[in-house]
Amino acid sequence: MIEQQGKFDWMLRDLYDGVPGIEMIVVLSADGLRIARYSGDPDAADRVAAACAGLQSLASAVSQEIPTSDGDMKMVLIEMNGGYFYLMAAGPNAYLAVLSDVRCEPGRMGLSMADLVARIGPHLTSPARRNGQTV
What we know:
The chain is an alpha+beta fold. The chain has helices at 5-18, 42-63, 106-120; strands at residues 22-29, 34-38, 75-80, 83-91, 94-101, 129-130, 133-134.
């Protein structure tokens, strides 16, 4: 997939500028391919995108064990020494991932990510693929 960096620059920059402590923002497809990124190393963004595919799959599987859940993953937050990792569903087959340092307040980040997704979610989608081809 060709990275659509230019299409998302201003949207991702707004999130980056609006929340202190963001290190990297990655938009990715459900199968772990980077669609766009803001800040951070491109190779690191590819690794984050690939890891997110497994994480969103795991979160969806766990979600299915909650009787009132529809099985869809909405958001994952991981607190680590030195920072946070956020992963949020951003549209059909697309996700928004953010890495931040400890200055970032998780509640503010969650609201800022949800606002971004609500405003531009239709643009943060990725077509389904089978065997590397768009279906």
